[in-house]
Specification:
Elongation factor 4; alpha+beta; about 600 residues; binds magnesium ion; eight-stranded antiparallel β-sheet; six-stranded mixed β-sheet; binds guanosine-5'-diphosphate; 33 strands
């Protein structure tokens, strides 16, 4: 295909504004997939993605479209994850295309992820076509959304296309706009091969599949390629395009997007953003480098049943083959035994990995409280990266501690603004900006990441009844008065419950934690003290009183079936508990105890 007849684009949107549905309609309107094979959300392949309605890996599809000018065009859509955890993945796939459709739900308006994603598109120098979706709904208000797009984002909305991805209205106009308004890619056919590795994923049958965008030159089956950053060389077994199923092609030329398969063993051997060239005829100038995405949230994963440790290792190693952004190392905890300390891009990423281990590998897990990486500066001049609060050195040897901060953008209807400001204040936030657009406020806060990783988003949703949207980016490290708080149950320290806290809030957090644990730990035959401490100093204390009588005898008298049910339930509950000294602590305690209400 000549460059003039190729268009490469992505779709940017806030979650649920209709990105996947629009992609489905574009695929359908161009007969890319026979109607009988059409199912909803074609591009969201993984199970968990479907269930949670999120796209985790970049996907691509090639659409062939005969435009009203009578010419045949090839349109390549790269679908990217829309969630804040995967912002980095969005940024790199954006660089593989020249334009974006900006989808805004016309019943909702611009939201925080609309902003975050469109700024990525602007950064990548995209031509942007606004698309106002859901016009079939009575609440749709196009002029209000147009005003918001112009005021808040600052791009011209006069050419915005009203559509209903549900009914198909306006889809033809979108296809025409892609052809007319988005620029064709640039590139030189007879230059040495220069291709961008956009993403790679693991396929059970085929091994590692790379999504590539050809910048210059031509890629063919049988070529010996070199990954310029990793230095790996491979023979190309197969190349092709996604329609959206894999379809082999003879060659991929400049401007084209497709896949390559070269017997690469694991995703870890590939570096997204790397430049692919020919071993024999290398491009003199690799693409500007990308920073690999770094895990920012860490937690421990331990098997509930310690006999399953090897199974857990196996599961984690397999998952890691397909997910280079996930890190792990073995960890042993006096309380929980052997497990892994794992690093994730964010909380959603953590949940996805944890769910997959539990579901696909059938291993029940204890997840310890998520933590960020602290920079601990020692009095002897050395510095350590603290991934686990349990490893915090003795305070007398520490000079100071720095924590990661974020810039958070929150959009919220006026009526909830007060609650949002209070929430940010409670989480040690510093207000950077507060502006209004229509009946909505946009608050920008500098917040400690640690105060956000745990349950900030849940709290935000609940105080605003779901009407706020939130996005953040990492800003860097700053010093604060941070200390390690330990928790002792029955006078034994439970290392998995220790956490880093701000000194001024330690008493409050300690009290809340002890109260929570008192509710979460079942009563035993003896009295159990629960304490929070900094260094050797106890800052909060609760006592769980002893159990007096057999509960079942007392509550249920002679009803045998109810009694059995209760015992079964206790047994099931037991499985999810771990013993700490003489005390059983249920697994949900590790997460619940840290929630701040
Ligand atoms: P994504 O998160 O941006 O990929 O959004 P989806 O495509 O998954 O859409 C979110 C929800 O909005 C789904 O329930 C869709 O069926 C619905 N939806 C998408 N487009 C339209 C539309 O044009 N009209 C209506 N009424 N619903 C839509
Ligand atoms: Mg989607």
């Amino acid at each position: 295909t000549p460059l003039s007849h190729i268009r490469n684009f992505s779709i940017v949107a806030h979650i649920d504004h209709g990105k996947s549905t629009l992609a489905d309609r574009l695929i359908q309107a161009t007969d890319t997939v026979p109607d009988r094979d059409m199912k909803e959300q074609l591009l969201d392949a993984m199970d968990i993605e479907r269930e949670r309605g999120i796209t985790i890996k970049a996907n691509t599809v090639r659409i062939e479209y005969t435009a009203l000018d009578g010419e045949d065009y090839v349109l390549n859509l790269i679908d990217t994850p829309g969630h804040v955890d995967f912002a980095y993945e969005v940024s790199r796939s954006m660089r593989a295309v020249e334009g974006s459709l900006l989808v805004v739900d016309s019943t909702q308006g611009v939201e925080a992820q609309t902003l975050a994603n469109v700024y990525q598109a602007i950064d990548a120098d995209h031509e942007i076509v606004p698309v106002f979706n859901k016009i079939d709904l009575p609440a749709s208000d196009i002029s209000r959304v147009a005003e918001q797009v112009e005021d808040v984002i600052g791009i011209d909305a006069s050419g915005a296309i009203p559509v209903s991805a549900k009914t198909g209205e306006g889809i033809r106009e979108v296809l025409e706009a892609i052809v007319k308004l988005l620029p064709p890619p640039k590139g030189t056919r007879d230059a040495p091969l220069k291709a961008m590795l956009v993403d790679s994923k693991y396929d059970q049958y085929l091994g590692v599949i790379c999504i590539v965008r050809i910048i210059d030159g031509v890629l063919k089956k049988g070529d010996r390629i070199r990954m310029m950053k990793t230095g790996g060389t491979y023979d190309v077994d197969d190349i092709g395009v996604y329609r959206p199923s894999m379809k082999p092609v003879k060659e991929l030329g400049p401007g084209e997007i497709g896949y390559l398969n070269a017997s690469i063993k694991q995703v870890r051997d590939t570096r997204v953003g790397d430049t692919i060239t020919l071993e024999k005829n290398q491009t003199p100038e690799p693409l500007p480098g990308f920073n690999p995405s770094q895990p920012v949230v860490f937690c421990g994963l331990f098997p509930v049943d310690s006999a399953e440790f090897e199974d857990l290792r196996d599961a984690i190693e397999k998952l890691a083959l397909n997910d280079a952004s996930f890190s792990y190392e073995m960890e042993s905890s006096t309380a929980l035994g052997f497990g892994f300390r794992c690093g994730f891009l964010g909380l959603l990423h953590l949940e996805v990995v944890r769910d997959r281990i539990e579901r696909e590998y059938d291993i029940e897990l204890i997840t310890t409280a998520p933590s960020v990486i602290y920079h601990v500066y020692m009095k002897d001049g050395t510095q350590i990266d603290l991934h686990n609060p349990a490893d915090m050195p003795d305070p007398s040897t520490v000079a100071h501690v720095e924590e990661p901060r974020i810039k958070a953008t929150i959009l919220v209807p006026d009526e909830f603004l007060g609650d949002v400001l209070k929430l940010c204040q409670d989480r040690r936030g510093i207000q950077m900006d507060l502006t209004y657009a229509g009946s909505r406020a946009m608050a920008v806060y500098d917040l400690p990441l640690n105060e956000v990783v745990f349950d900030f988003y849940d709290r935000l949703k609940s105080v605003t009844r779901g009407y706020a949207s939130f996005d953040y980016q990492l800003e860097g490290y700053r010093e604060d008065n941070l200390v390690k708080m330990s928790v002792l149950v029955n006078d034994e320290p439970v290392d998995a419950l220790s956490m880093m806290v701000h000194r001024d809030r330690a008493e409050m957090r300690g009290r809340a934690m002890c109260e929570k644990l008192k509710d979460l730990i079942p009563r035993h035959m003896f009295k159990i003290p629960i304490q929070a401490a900094i260094g050797g100093k106890v800052i909060a204390r609760e006592t769980l009183s002893a159990l007096r009588k057999d509960v079942t005898a007392k509550c249920y008298g002679g009803d045998a079936s109810r009694k059995r049910k209760l015992l079964d339930k206790q047994k099931a509950g037991k499985k999810k508990m771990r013993q700490f000294g003489k005390v059983d602590i249920p697994q949900e305690a590790f997460i619940s105890a840290l929630k701040m209400d």
